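Materials and Methods. Structural model of Transporter. The 310-residue sequence of Transporter from Pseudomonas taiwanensis was retrieved and submitted for structure prediction as follows.
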Amino acid sequence: MTHNYKSNISSRMLFSLGLLGLCTTAAATENGVPTTAFGVYDFGAGMMPPPSSTGIFGLRTGYYSANDQKDRHGRSRDNNFSLDVLTLGLAYIHMTNNTVLGANYGFGGVVPFFKMDGSVEIPTPGGPLKLEADPFRMADLLISPLILQWSLSPNLFINAQLQIMAPTGDYDKNRLVSPGLNHWAFSPIVNATYITDSGFELSSSFQADINTRNQATNYKNGVEYRHEFAAGQHMGAWTVGLGGYYYRQLSDDEAPGLDSGNRARVMAVGPAVSYFKQGLPPVWLHVYKEFDARNRSEGYSIGLRIAQSF
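The predicted structure was written out as tokens:
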């Protein structure tokens, strides 16, 4: 069993188990939702594909839904809040034979699209004012000019990335929700995967988002941190277990008239599975439920990823 499992680990490196970590899913802390995606990395976060002449393509679709918006104390706001976000992202990663610091160098990018449906009620002297928006547009382009992959042993895989989010998506400061954020973000990322000889896997992703100012609103998000994780057992072509994420702002937002700092946080956990069989595209699926939210929405997310080399 151990011999067959180690052989299968080598073949899995033909695909990028962390391929679609470049994808984004929601708006910004300016509107109570993080700048870049979480709930993306689960099993195989530390693995990138081997060097090739063509690279690898992937598709990620995600769905986020929330009907509860929490204040700074974790209490639900009485505003009939609703947010549903369907994301579609086409990703590409190309690992090369060039080495940097003993790691294989690569690069990649993601073109994402969002279908958003949001509504909220704002109290006014004349009664509640309901705001709604349902755009379906291109979101902000994500570029990774630097990806470094280390395979430190047959069981341990680590990669480091620099991700840049460019303000190319559709944006309207007068609309309740927008696929684009209208600011840049720079994100250092470190991912790791350890798999025992018996097939038990631990994977983690650590990321920080450093944001520039939205010139249309003069709003600047604080530095954001996230830790994503997955733990599960490989059973033949399947990996089954639990995954989740922890998200927290490390510094205050900056905006005219903002005095509370508006720091957000949330946690999530839920089942995660992946399927890999030689000759077929690998597939990952997870369903996470959020809890302990502050200064943001609290809901659930579903993520589905598929990768294919050519």
